[in-house]
Amino acid sequence: MFRIQLLVSVLLCCFTFWFHISFGYLITCSGIVPMRYRNDKVSITDFGGVGDGKTLNTKAFREAIYRIQHLRRRGGTLLYVPPGVYLTESFNLTSHMTLYLARGAVIKATQDTWTWPLVAPLPSYGRGRERPGGRYMSFIHGDGLRDVVITGENGTIDGQGGIWWNMWRQGNLQFTRPNLVEFMNSRGIIISNVIFKNSPFWNIHPVYCSNVVIRYVTILAPTDSPNTDGIDPDSSSNVCIEDSFISTGDDLVAVKSGWDEYGIAYGRPSSHITIRRVTGSSPFAGIAVGSETSGGVEHVLAENIVIYNSGIGVNIKTNIGRGGFIKNITVSQVFMENVRTGIKITGDTGDHPDNQFNPNALPYVKGVTLKNIWGVKVQKAGSIQGLKNAPFTNICLSKINLHGMTGPRSPPWKCSDVSGAAIEEPPTCSSTLPLLSSLLW
C-alpha cells in the first residue's frame, strides 16, 4: 500500500510538471501583447515641458495626455520625453498611447506629498494595504485602459521614495503609500526598456489586468526601503515577466490576488503568470506567491532565475483566514547564492486587514513542483509547513541541491502537514516527502 501511495505521488508530480510545460507556458511574451507602431508622435516639450529638474511639469504631462485621449489618432500616439529631468506630480495615462523615454530622460516625482491625490481602496483588499481607508494614487496610473506602452532607451522613472519611507518609519502615514506604476482593469500593457527607481511603495502593480508584458526592465531601491516590491501581478491573468534585473527592499516578484474576506468576496484569481530570466537580490524573497492569495493563484511558471544576497529564494506563503487556493505552480532552473532560506512554503505568513476575517477560511495548496534548484551559501535549505486542517498536497521536489555555508552538505529541512514526493537529491522531509532517488523525470 505504501509503495502504491509513493507511485501515485510521483505520477501526480510528473503529470503536473508535464502539463505546465506542454500546455501552460508555450506563448512567449511577444505573443501575448504585440508592440504597436504609433502613427502620431508628440513631444512633452510641445506642451511646455522643461527638463531642468526644477520646473514642475504636471500641466505639460496632463495636457499632452488629454490631447492624446481626445484626438484619438488612428493607431494611437507616442509621447516622447527627450533627455532631461522632468519633475512632476502624479498623472494618469490613457488608452492607445506609448510613453517613450529617451536615453537620459528622467521622469521624477515631486516630493510634495500633500499634493498627492487619494483614490479608493482596491475592492479585493477592502482598505489600503498599510493604513485603513483610501490610498495615494500611483505616480503613473492607468484605470480601464487598452493598448498602453511604457518604453524607451532605458530612461528612468524616479519615485523619490525617501520621504515616503521616512514617513512609514516614523509612523506618520495617514494613508497607504503610492506605487510607482499601477494599471487597474486594463488590457494589452507593455512595459519595457525603462529603469524604475526609488518607488514609494510597490514598483509595478498590474491589478485586475490581463495580457501584460514586462521585460527588459531594471528596478532599483535600497535594501532598507520598506515594502518596495519589484513586480506584483495581482488578480491578473496572462502576465509575462522576462529578462529583467531587480534589486529592492522587498520581494522581487510577488504574485497576489486579494486579502482575506475582501479577496474571497471579489473572487478574481491570478492565473497564467510566466516569469523568466529574472536576476536580483532582496532582503526578503526572490520569487514569491502571496501572502495575499484569497482570490486564488494558479498556473504560475518561474524559470531561469538567479537570486543572490537575499532572505528567501522561493517563498510560497498564505495564512489562516485567506481562503483561496495556490495550485499548479512550477519553479525550475533556479540558482541562488548567499540566502538565508532556499525554499519556504508556509501557511502561517502575513497579517490580516482587520479582525473580521473568517478563521475557518483555510487556503488549499496543491500541485507545487520545484525542480532543478541549485544554491551555495544557503544557511537553511528549506521548510514546508502546511496547515493541520488543510495539509499541502502534491508538493514535488526534484534535483534540489542547496549547499551550506561551510561545505556541500545540505542544511536540514523542516516539514509538517505536507504530502508529495522528493525525487533525487536531497533526502528532504523524509517523513512526508519520501526520497525516490532511483526515479528520473
Task: Give the structure's gist in a few sentences.
The chain is mostly beta strands and 441 residues long. Helix content is 13%, strand content 44%.
Radius of gyration: 22 Å
CATH architecture of the largest domain: 3 Solenoid
Amount of helix: 10-25%
Write down the domain tally: 2
What is the CATH third-level topology name of the largest domain? Pectate Lyase C-like
Shape call: globular
**Terminus-to-terminus distance:** 23 Å
CATH homologous superfamily of the largest domain? Single-stranded right-handed beta-helix, Pectin lyase-like
Count of individual beta strands? 28
Please summarize the sheet with the most strands.
Answer: 22 strands, parallel
Mean of pLDDT: 91
Poorly predicted segments: 1-8, 17-26, 435-441
Percent of sequence in beta strands: 35-45%
**CATH domain class of the largest domain:** Mainly Beta
Number of helical segments with 4 or more residues: 5
Which class best fits the helix and strand makeup? Answer: mainly beta
Task: Report on this structure.
The protein has about 450 residues and is mainly beta. It folds into 2 domains: about 1-30 and about 250-440, Pectate Lyase C-like; about 40-250, Pectate Lyase C-like (3 Solenoid), CATH 2.160.20. It is built from 5 helices and 28 strands. It has helices spanning about 1-25, 30, 60-70, 160-170, 260-265; strands at about 40-45, 50-55, 75-80, 85-90, 90, 95-100, 105-110, 120, 135, 140-145, 145-150, 155-160, 180-185, 185-190, 195, 205, 210-215, 220, 235-245, 255, 270-280, 285-290, 295-315, 325-345, 365-385, 390-400, 415, 420-425. It has a 22-stranded parallel β-sheet that branches. The two termini are about 25 Å apart. The relative contact order is 0.10. GO terms for molecular function: polygalacturonase activity. Belongs to the glycosyl hydrolase 28 family.
